[in-house]
Design brief:
The structure holds 2 protein chains of 2 kinds. By secondary structure, chain A is an alpha+beta fold. In chain A, the strands form 2 sheets. Chain A has a 6-stranded mixed beta sheet with strand order 3-4-2-1-5-7. A 5-stranded mixed beta sheet of chain A has the order 8-9-10-11-12. In chain A, strand 1 and strand 2 form a beta hairpin. Chain B is an alpha+beta fold. In chain B, 40% of the residues lie in helices and 12% in strands. In chain B, strands 4-5-3-2-6-7 form a 6-stranded mixed beta sheet, with helices on one face. In chain B, strands 8-11-12-13-14 form a 5-stranded mixed beta sheet. In chain B, strands 9-10 form a two-stranded antiparallel ribbon. Chain B starts with a helix and ends in an 11-residue tail after the last strand. The chains are: A alpha+beta, B alpha+beta. Strand 6 of chain A pairs antiparallel with strand 1 of chain B.
Chain lengths: 319, 499
């Protein structure tokens, strides 16, 4: 993780083209195959999801927060803290595509080639076999260590028990049994690529199963603009708006604004404005009415400052 | 360097594919199971060292929790196989504790619905294989969730409620008793259980299809099967076995040929004056036993002896109702102006309904003569007359211009909507101990899944859903990008009577 959590120091243009390295991997980026350079977005219906932790870290460093919607591996039966996958807003996915940071994997087909598949199955089973052998050895070593420790403790006291344990230790190599059901097995979260079937990837959002309409375009323009200004945005359905705007990472800061996206020619009834203003004052957040001035369909426009008009609402008393 | 490359390539592959090494798997046994508590948030980013450190700590903790993979003991995992054609997961090793509330048996095998299997995969209880390779959670989401099974939003609601401990089943519209059945207060019999098991197999998705279209088809098929079942199930056959073969064919034939033309000729003419209907509820009758009914009234060669009523009478509640003081006062107020219709001499003179209706008409005309002409002969007439009403409610009924309507009015003419469907039946967590899959009982609530992107349910949708749900309340689960809110609408009646 780079030491620039708020992304404030990085300039908007450069952060998107750099391939961020994960500090934990020891390997160098020049040997990585080309597919690793892009964040992988997989679609469930029309919803974009991100599965790999490295991809999620890259998203966050690009300022895309998303929301976790799966069970947490450590404690799956609670709702306080959720785990992978990371669900992205459609605007977030569009931003990643716009800045060429991500590509979507479309519907994976079953590997038609029988031989490749059979080979993959063989490899998987061989992997299990070797894992079992290794775990056997580790378990044996572990047991020996435990017995030795007890023996040392006992030797400080009475030494009758010590000899019994020493005999056990010596017999351990023959007598030790590590049954197969005791083996630890991993249940992979993200696709483990066992079958190595070539994935079909799409780099253009027009192929993605997301319905593009006027409303999404308006929201995307506002999202992109606020993101480029350095704010972090998440969904604000429960606050009656489109986005919650944070000055820094949502893990550490409270939101300042509730952004409502309205296109320039859309009419908003006065009672709706009153309702949202009331709501904003109750939750101590400023309401922002955001309207893009002009926004192309393909999103190829350069993100110029002042592309979006903002109006904030504030209750004040008449003096 | 060549060695380093080959040595690090599998490592790179492992790290990229997030696979754990055997030693990591072994170490995972002693992992902590606690989730650290989140600290307080700040308001303004100040760029201070303290803030940066705390943010880094939160982020590190965040990534640690998310990076952790599920590691389970092979013996604790239930092995299962995904069958895409049936969209079901078949268990291949014995089920665990989850079998009490999830899954179903069919043709000797145990199955899980896709959403149940995916939830259990996320909990680390089940390992699902497809073509001999284990499915990852990602593949589970991609393969199991679709429009034909359960959508992502519906699965999020399902998972959320299951993690809280609720029992969540797919909604099956045919399991809701109709208003008539509810009136009859039919107890849940074994018949119901048979029907329910068949329904579980057939219900393809929580999206309940048009009730009008599928109900007759399903009824016919269940009847076919029910006829077979009746032949085999001894419990249902007890009343039938006492009769001989000719009676059975009589019963069956009537079912197979329900043509209306035959019905009137087959119906017997009953002389009600000669049939006595004993009044067992009244204490005055003092009836202790019933004689055997006339055999001509009974079907076939059925023999019924006399009936000793003392056991039943002791069960009938003939106690005087104990009213509280307020209830008695209320009853006195109501009865103050109550006139027993039989004490009216003119009514007693009427010998039949026609004469009685004529009497009412005469009275009405006489009353109208009392009405002032300038009020009643115009285009606009008064809504009521003095002396016409005896209670506030009657008066309000007469002067109200907007008639109140009930929730269930006009429901039968509503067409089912594609957008609004009930997805799940929810049972409360504290009923889990006694929960029986074959006989779950009445659910606590029914869930309809929607999102903030869609429209708010209108009156049409709400009426339709509450009708489909019967007497179980409907809750709306609104999914907004991972956050789920629950809304329900409560019926409210404006008070019309003042006491």
């Amino acid at each position: 993780m780079d030491g620039d959590p708020a992304g404030m120091n990085a300039s908007p243009q450069s952060s998107s083209m750099e391939v961020k390295e994960d500090m934990n991997t020891q390997t160098e980026s020049e040997h990585q195959p080309s597919k690793d350079a892009l964040i992988d977005i997989s679609f469930c219906g029309a919803t974009p999801l991100v599965w790999k932790v490295s991809d999620m870290k890259r998203c966050r460093s690009a300022g895309v927060i998303g929301a976790l919607v799966g069970s947490l591996a450590r404690q799956p039966r609670q709702n306080v803290r959720l785990g992978r996958p990371l669900e992205l807003l459609q605007e977030e996915a569009l931003l990643l595509e716009d800045t060429s940071t991500a590509a979507a994997s479309l519907q994976t087909q079953d590997c038609g080639d029988e031989e490749t598949h059979a080979e993959a199955v063989r490899r998987y089973e061989a992997g299990l076999e070797s894992s079992y052998k290794e775990q056997c050895a580790l378990a044996l070593e572990d047991k020996k260590t435990v017995l030795r420790r007890i023996m040392n403790e006992k030797e400080n006291g009475t030494d009758d028990c010590g000899s019994a344990i020493r005999d056990r230790l010596n017999a351990l190599d023959q007598a030790f049994r590590f049954p197969l059901p005791a083996m630890a097995v991993q249940l992979c979260t993200a696709r483990a690529g066992f079958s190595h079937c070539p994935e079909e990837r799409s780099f253009h959002s027009t192929d993605w199963p997301m319905p593009r309409d006027e409303r999404l375009n308006t929201r995307f323009c506002v999202y992109r603009d606020l993101r480029n200004k350095g704010f972090y945005l998440t969904s604000a359905g429960k606050f009656g708006g489109d986005f919650l705007v944070y000055p820094g990472d949502p893990l550490r800061f409270h939101a300042h604004f509730i952004a409502l996206c309205i296109s320039m020619d859309e009419e908003l009834p006065l009672c709706d404005i009153l309702a949202i203003a009331r709501l904003g004052s109750n939750v101590k957040k400023t309401v922002l009415l955001c309207s893009p001035k002009k926004c192309g369909e393909t999103g190829n426009d350069e993100s110029v400052e002042g592309d979006v008009v903002y109006s904030s609402l504030q209750w004040s008393s008449m003096v | 360097m060549a060695d380093r490359e080959t040595a690090t390539d599998p490592l790179k592959h492992r790290v990229y594919e997030e696979l754990l090494s055997p030693s990591e798997l072994f170490e995972a046994r002693s992992r902590s199971h606690k989730i650290p508590v989140r600290g307080q948030k700040d308001f303004l980013p100040s760029g201070s060292e303290q803030q940066t450190t705390r943010l880094q700590q939160s982020l590190d903790e965040h990534w640690t929790l998310l990076t952790e993979e599920r590691v389970e003991r092979l013996g604790n995992l239930v092995k299962a196989v995904w069958i895409p054609d049936e969209r079901l997961v078949e268990l291949q090793s014995p089920a665990g504790k989850f079998w009490q509330t999830m899954g179903f048996s069919e043709r000797g095998k145990q199955y899980l619905l896709p959403e149940e299997a995916l939830y259990l995969m996320e909990c680390g209880n089940v390992q699902v294989f497809y073509r001999d390779l284990p499915l990852s959670i990602q593949e589970g989401y991609e393969r199991f969730l679709s429009r034909e099974t359960v959508t992502l939003h519906q699965y999020q609601v399902f998972g959320h409620l299951k993690r809280l401990g609720y029992v969540v089943n797919r909604f099956d519209s045919s399991s809701v008793p109709s208003t008539y059945e509810r009136q009859l207060n039919l107890p849940a019999s074994s018949w119901d259980k048979q029907r329910k098991q068949l329904k579980r197999k057939r219900s393809g998705s929580p999206v309940s299809s048009d009730k009008q279209n599928t109900a007759p088809e399903e009824k016919m098929t269940t009847e076919d099967q029910s006829e077979e079942l009746v032949k085999t199930d001894p419990r249902l056959e007890e009343p039938m076995q006492s009769t001989d073969a000719s009676d059975r064919t009589w019963w069956m034939e009537a079912d197979v040929q329900p043509s209306p033309a035959q019905a009137p000729s087959a119906a017997p003419r009953w002389d009600f004056s000669s049939i006595s209907f004993p009044d067992l509820g009244s204490r005055r009758s003092g009836c202790v036993s019933l004689a055997s009914p006339d055999p001509s009234l009974l079907p076939g060669a059925l023999e019924v002896g006399g009936c000793d009523l003392s056991l039943w009478l002791s069960r009938v509640n003939v106690k005087q109702e104990k009213l509280s003081r307020r209830d008695r006062e209320r009853q006195r107020d109501r009865d103050r102006y109550h006139r027993d219709i039989n004490s009216d001499r003119e009514v007693r003179h009427c010998r039949n309904w026609a004469e009685y209706l004529q009497l009412l008409e005469d009275r009405r005309r006489r009353r109208q003569k009392d009405r002032p002409v300038h009020l009643w002969e115009q285009e606009v007439t008064p809504l009521t007359q003095p002396g016409q009403c005896t209670s506030h409610r009657e008066l309000l009924d007469q002067i109200s211009i907007i008639k109140s309507s009930s929730w269930s009015e006009g429901v039968s003419s509503l067409s089912s909507s594609d957008q609004w469907k009930i997805s799940f039946d929810i049972y409360q967590p504290d009923t889990v101990a006694e929960f029986k899959k074959s006989h779950p009982g009445k659910p606590y609530t029914r869930m309809c899944v929607c999102s903030f992107d869609g429209p708010v349910p209108d009156l049409n949708a709400m009426k339709l859903l509450s009708f489909q749900s019967g007497d179980v309340p409907v809750t709306f689960a609104v999914v907004d990008h991972g956050d789920i809110s629950f809304y329900c609408f409560k019926d409210f009646k404006l008070p019309t009577d003042a006491y």
